[in-house]
Automatic annotation (TrEMBL):
<feature type="binding site">
    <location>
        <position position="241"/>
    </location>
    <ligand>
        <name>pyridoxal 5'-phosphate</name>
    </ligand>
</feature>
<dbReference type="InterPro" id="IPR009006">
    <property type="entry name" value="Ala_racemase/Decarboxylase_C"/>
</dbReference>
<feature type="binding site">
    <location>
        <position position="324"/>
    </location>
    <ligand>
        <name>substrate</name>
    </ligand>
</feature>
<feature type="domain" description="Orn/DAP/Arg decarboxylase 2 N-terminal">
    <location>
        <begin position="42"/>
        <end position="289"/>
    </location>
</feature>
<feature type="binding site">
    <location>
        <position position="320"/>
    </location>
    <ligand>
        <name>substrate</name>
    </ligand>
</feature>
<dbReference type="GO" id="GO:0009089">
    <property type="term" value="P:lysine biosynthetic process via diaminopimelate"/>
</dbReference>
<comment type="subunit">
    <text>Homodimer.</text>
</comment>
<comment type="similarity">
    <text>Belongs to the Orn/Lys/Arg decarboxylase class-II family. LysA subfamily.</text>
</comment>
<feature type="binding site">
    <location>
        <position position="285"/>
    </location>
    <ligand>
        <name>substrate</name>
    </ligand>
</feature>
<comment type="function">
    <text>Specifically catalyzes the decarboxylation of meso-diaminopimelate (meso-DAP) to L-lysine.</text>
</comment>
<dbReference type="GO" id="GO:0008836">
    <property type="term" value="F:diaminopimelate decarboxylase activity"/>
</dbReference>
<feature type="active site" description="Proton donor">
    <location>
        <position position="351"/>
    </location>
</feature>
<keyword id="KW-0663">Pyridoxal phosphate</keyword>
<keyword id="KW-0210">Decarboxylase</keyword>
<protein>
    <recommendedName>
        <fullName>Diaminopimelate decarboxylase</fullName>
        <ecNumber>4.1.1.20</ecNumber>
    </recommendedName>
</protein>
<feature type="binding site">
    <location>
        <position position="380"/>
    </location>
    <ligand>
        <name>substrate</name>
    </ligand>
</feature>
<feature type="binding site">
    <location>
        <begin position="282"/>
        <end position="285"/>
    </location>
    <ligand>
        <name>pyridoxal 5'-phosphate</name>
    </ligand>
</feature>
Length: 427
């Protein structure tokens, strides 16, 4: 068995990679490439495994990690709420069937129009600054509504994440410093239109150790202790960030490990204070990353100073390697069981040297028209893709019970033109 195989999900059968029992090579032939393929059962398994480790905890799926309506629909069916970072994400989550009262709007630089949209939609808001608090209060008062709010705390916890993925450090743009928290809750308590019922933090993404969560829990509970005398706290939200093993063999905490790092501390501190707020968590990556492979076709194999495999997907389709030096396992889907025969660097069709998807990988002999699968592409994959270099965005497929459904159409040249306007004088 290959290190990346997950029984029932990703398997090698007859030298081909299969996902959810469906042959990846035949999917590439039927739907074309590049193609994101997601296994519904894996989404549900991930959700159930995570929530089983956190009994009684409310899961707010971080919608930014995968904006596909079908994916969010599946989580809605599993009982998830959503962490939405924009009005557009609130809209999508509502369209996927997630009830407004289970959506937390968490942006850090919200427009008044977005705040109005949140008020009209009836969602909760995680407030990131005093300016935002005042704007929200004014708008809610005018609309004769009361919005349930939390404040996003910057707990100053170092989470050993990639510098671009750490969000809870002093230098991070997110959240309110701990020293200002008590006074802002006091101020909010007096303002019309807002009802402070929660407290929120999120310390970073792709975190691979449990200790930062215990530290964040303690720091948040220190604040809870200080505000619980005058705030009727309904919930504490510790955010997401739970990492996954992109590099096979990397030791990664399990949901039970994460739970052990958070729950006993949370419960003990609540008991000591004499309160029983709910705990909320906002996993994104953990729920979706390993449910999805990105399939792409080899256009060229070039022996230069290195062996370059040129595919039809680049950082326009999956930006993570270019943006964060992220590792995604590369598998030749039509030779998945064959032994490695050489070292290859997989690159895309974009006019930039940074357009590299996988560097110096041991792979079977790679040839034109082979299908490369990049694994763990379900988080921050399609949703961060673009039309750079005049390439329409690709399609997405969902597999379930051995069958595939197209869940997002491949864009066409018309989509490149959509919304562009030629002034009459230039016609
Ligand atoms: C507020 C908030 N919550 C949750 C998440 C989800 O993070 P992850 O996908 O690492 O679980 C993010 C993204 O980092 C976020 O900004
Ligand atoms: N986009 C990042 C994660 C950012 C999380 C959002 N705060 C990634 O691909 O890993």
């Amino acid at each position: 068995m290959k290190a990346y195989e997950i029984p029932g999900h990703l398997e090698v059968k007859g030298n081909h990679l299969t996902i959810g029992g469906v042959d990846a090579v035949s999917l590439a032939e039927t739907y074309g490439t590049p193609l994101y393929v997601t296994n519904e059962d894996r989404l549900r398994d991930n959700y159930r495994r995570f929530s089983a480790a956190f009994p009684g905890v409310s899961i707010f799926f971080a919608a930014k990690s995968n904006n596909n309506l079908v994916v969010q629909r599946i989580f809605a069916q599993e009982g998830a709420g959503a962490d939405a970072f924009s009005d557009g994400e609130i809209y999508l989550a509502r369209m996927a069937g997630i009830p407004a009262e289970k959506i937390l709007f968490t942006g850090n630089s919200k427009t008044d129009a977005e705040l109005q949209y949140a008020i009209d939609s009836g969602v909760m808001v995680s407030v990131d600054s005093r300016d935002e608090l005042l704007a929200l209060s004014k708008l809610a008062k005018k609309a004769k509504k009361e919005v349930k709010i939390a404040f996003r705390v910057n707990p100053d916890v170092s989470a050993d994440a990639h510098p671009k993925l750490a969000t809870g450090l002093k230098v991070s743009k997110f959240g309110i410093p701990t020293k200002d928290i008590v006074s802002i809750y006091k101020e909010a308590k007096k303002l019309p239109g807002v009802n402070p019922v929660g407290i929120h933090c999120h310390i970073g993404s792709q975190i691979l150790e449990t200790a930062p969560y215990t530290e964040a829990t303690n720091k948040m509970m220190d604040l809870v202790e200080q505000i619980s005398g005058f705030i009727d706290l309904e919930w504490v939200d510790l955010g997401g960030g739970f990492g996954i093993p992109y590099q096979k063999g990397t030791k990664v905490p399990t949901p039970k490990d994460w739970a052990k790092a958070i729950l006993p501390t949370f419960k003990a501190r609540c008991k000591k204070i004499g309160i029983s707020p709910e705990l909320h968590l906002e996993p994104g990556r953990y729920m979706v990353a390993d449910s999805t492979v990105l399939l792409m076709r080899v256009n060229t194999v070039k022996k230069a100073y290195k062996n370059f495999v040129g595919t039809d997907a680049g950082f326009n389709t999956l930006i993570r390697p270019a943006m964060y030096d992220s590792y995604h396992e590369a598998v030749i889907a039509n030779k998945a069981g064959s032994p490695a025969k050489g070292e290859y660097t997989v690159v895309g069709p974009i006019c930039e040297s940074g357009d590299i998807l996988a560097t110096d990988r041991q792979l079977p002999v790679v040839e034109k028209d082979d299908i490369v699968a990049l694994l763990d592409a379900g988080a921050y994959g399609f949703c961060m893709s673009s039309q750079y270099v005049g390439r329409p965005r690709c399609a997405e497929v969902l597999v379930h019970n051995g069958k595939a459904d197209l869940i997002r159409k491949r864009e066409t040249f018309d989509d490149l033109l959509q919304n562009q306007i030629m002034p009459g004088r230039l016609l």
